[in-house]
Structure formats: structure tokens, C-alpha cells
Amino acid sequence: MTGTQPSELNVGNKVSPASPPTGRPVTSAYRSLLWTLALGVIFLFSAGLSSDAQVNNKKGGSLEKRIADLEQENAILRAMVDFDHTDTLPENLLLCDRKIPLTKDDTRERFEREYFQLLENRGLMTILVKRYLKYAGLIDGEIQRMALPSDLIYLVIAESYLNPRAVSTANAAGLWQFIKDTGKREGLQINDCVDERYNVKRSTRAALSHLKKLYSEFGDWFIAMAAYNAGPGRLREAIDNQGTRDFLDLYLPEETERYIFRVMAVKEIISNRERYGIRLYEKELYRPVMVSEVSIEAVREVPALTLARYMDLSYKAFRDLNLHLRKYRLPKGIYNINVPHEKKDLFLKRVKDSAYVILQ
Asked: How are beta strands 329-330 and 333-340 bridged, if at all?
């Protein structure tokens, strides 16, 4: 939301999507290695082909089978080498029901800058797909409840890479990278004890509410998303002084210009992940986030560990679900607690018998 990326994105020698592209040395080296292996296989096969020809013919069809197997292996190698080629990209991309033609050089270049940078880090993209599947149910549910475009889920991936603990250099926080003032305007509780920017459910509702207001003002989802990134004031000024309301034709800060194309690239890769070589078994996936929100009132200071024990969870497991609770001991007040679905009945029963808290 602030135009800067959370610190998690600067990993090792990799750069965040907001940084200039660094070329594709890993991809190029990988391609060269695979082609060398492929040619080696072909050479070895060819070397033995003539000497084995008569024997193979006598065996009836074994030569043809070896050729078919080799062709299949070669196709697999080509798929691995060519996973980042753009010749498979469609002529048009679709985001929030708007068609974006890649036939225009300027548009294609802006898209490919984000697209190739994401593809360069296969490990990161694999993690993003797994995080997407982890949070998709929760976020999609809120998007559908508010009757908003389903593609908005890709915006949150571009914002924080779905790291709920992400903090940017401008102190934007959480999945949706709220700064404090905007979060408070959208109804998030932010104080010394609670920071609901880190509450996955609450921050998602607040972000979607904010985006809905921006769309109501600008009447265009691309402009609304750009305003989410750069602030509505900057978009109003650009529109008033540049004589256009088309995002593709607006001159904006570089980070904001890149922002929408990053969202497009995230959607293209995640929606077509198998095409890009990201194939996951069910056992490899992260457990989906499935929580119920319970509102409680602390009638006296309550240790957070006590609330964790009401759910039969470790303190860490409790905090992972309730990152918005910032203190070990919570003073008297009202709190929204995320409880695993399967622990809700147990939690409600123990709260009923508690000397610390009551249900709201």
C-alpha cells in the first residue's frame, strides 16, 4: 500500500519486485546445463545405435521403443528448459474483467519485467503457490461475501507475498500492508496491546472495504489498485493533470506503474502453475487457515498463555493465529480472538468457566 515492499522479499542476493531486474543468470545456466545433458543423451544413444541395430531388429520393436522413450525424455527436458519462455503467453491478459493486450510493445515489456523476475526464483514462486492455497479459502470467502472481483486475491500476494508478519521499510504491516492511519480509518484496532493489521481476517475485511471505496470513487479497478498502492491523492492529481483516466497511459511513480503488472504476473503464474513447472502433491501443501472469530471481554488482566491453553495450543501456535495480540498479558478490554474451527467448542466451554474472560 505504501509503494515499498516488506523486508521478507530481500532474501540473499535476490531483489524485491520493486528493484530493477538483474538479468537471468540462474535461468541461463540452468538452460545450458539441461541442453548439454540432452545432447549428451542423444550422443550416447546415437553411438550405440548402429552397433545394436541388428540385435534390436531381431528383438522386434525394441529399437522403436528406445526411440520413442528418447523422444519423450527430450520433450521433458525441453519443457524444463522452456518453462520461462513467453511464446506460450496469450495475446491478452485478463485482470478484474479488463483485457490487457500484450501485442503492444510497451505493455508487453512492462509485464515481462515482473513476469521474468518472478520466474527467476522458482523456489519463491513455489512457496507463493503454497501460501496462496493456504489462505485462498479465507480471503476468497471475504471477497465473495463483499461481491468483489476474485482477482483481488492476487493483489495481496503482490503486497506482502502472503506473509502475515511482513513489515515494509515505511512501516506498512501485515498481509495487506496497511499503514497505521489507513488501518484506523478502516476500523482496525491499533494500539500498544493490539494491532489488527496483523489479524488476517480483520485486515482482509478492512482492505477489501478500502478497495471498494476506491473503486466507488474512480470507477476503475486498475486505478483503484494503483490508489491502494500510492494513495488516492496521487491518483487524483495524476488524472487531473494528465488528461486520461486509463492506468496504462498514466505517468506515475515507477513502483506504482509496476504494481499492476506485478499483480498480473502473479495471476498468470499461479493460475497456470503447472505450465511453469510448479507441481505439488497434497502432502506438500501447507494446512489451510480455517479459523472462527470469537469476541471476548477480559474482566481482569489475562495471560495470553491462558487463552492458548483454553484451545489446547502452544503459545506459539496461538500467536501464529493471533499475531494482532502484541503483549504476553492483556489488560481489561474487548478482544477478537481467532480460534481453529475444530477448537471452537472447547474454547467456548472453557471461557464460560473462566475467571479471566467472558463472551461478548
From this structure: unpaired
Residue 157 CB burial class (10 angstroms; 0-12, 13-18, ≥19): buried
3-state secondary structure of 353: coil
Structure confidence at residue 53 (pLDDT): 47
- Assign 8 to helix, strand or coil: helix
CA–CA distances in Å: residue 156 to residues 48, 97, 143, 223, 293: 55, 18, 12, 16, 21
From residue 60, give the alpha-carbon distance in Å to each of 41, 57, 71: 23, 5, 19
Is 109 part of the annotated catalytic residue set? no
Catalytic residue (choose from 120, 142, 159, 186)? 159
Cell numbers at 136, concatenated = 485462498
Q: What is the DSSP letter of 186?
A: T
Residue 23 DSSP SS3: coil
Q: Where are the domains of the chain?
A: 92-284, 291-359
- Comparing CA positions, the residue from 134, 131, 196 lying closest to residue 158 is 131
Q: Dump pLDDT digits (tens) for 15-40.
A: 344 333 344 444 444 555 555 565 55
CA 260 to chain centre: 14
Q: Angle formed by the axes of helices 200-218 and 122-145, to 10°?
A: 70
Q: Are 78 and 69 in contact (CB under 8 A)?
A: no
> β-pairing, 333-340 with 291-298?
antiparallel
Q: Whole-prediction pTM value?
A: 0.77
Average pLDDT, the chain: 85
Of 145, 114, 128, which Cα lies nearest the Cα of 257?
114
Pure H helices in 299-342: 304-310, 315-321
Q: CB under 8 Å to 349, separation ≥6 — which residues?
A: none
pLDDT in tens, 72-95: 766 655 555 444 455 578 889 999
Q: What CATH class is the domain 92-284?
A: mainly alpha
